[in-house]
Amino acid sequence: MAVPNPLSAVDRIRKEVERNSLRARNGIKMVAGVGKPKVGATPRDVVWRNGRARLFRYRNDDVRYRPPLLIVFSLVSKAYILDLSPGNSFIEHLLREGLRRLSARLG
């Protein structure tokens, strides 16, 4: 029978306390409106609109692959989910790889 290591339990508790303090700090910032994350920051143009449905064309000067990639989001997803923040964006990755991307948001 293995004897539990008390240091590993202390380390897990310490990490959990650190994570919860960061969550609390970020929650306070969000409620106060300070440091609100800028999502959907990649330059884009609306090329078609019908009610709440929109079609975006993301700008890319280095297009190496054709035809454009079309991604259609569901009614419950937000279009910016793949473009969360600069440096942490799937859209940026696609554009860097030479794709021209179109994104349709329905509803």
Series of secondary-structure elements, N-terminal to C-terminal: HEEEEEHE
Strand content: 25-35%
Query: Number of DSSP helices?
Result: 2
Biggest sheet statistics: 4 strands, mixed
Helix proportion: 25-40%
Shape: elongated
The parts where pLDDT drops under 50 for at least 5 residues are none
Distance between the termini: 58 Å
Instruction: Trace the largest sheet across and list its strands.
Output: 1-2-6-3
Mean pLDDT across residues: 81
E-strand count? 6
Could you say which structural class the secondary elements and strand pairing correspond to?
alpha+beta
Rounded Rg: 21 Å
Topology:
Blueprint: H1 6-32, E1 44-50, E2 53-58, E3 65-72, E4 83-85, E5 88-89, H2 90-96, E6 99-105
Parallel strand pairs: 3-6
Antiparallel strand pairs: 1-2, 2-6, 4-5
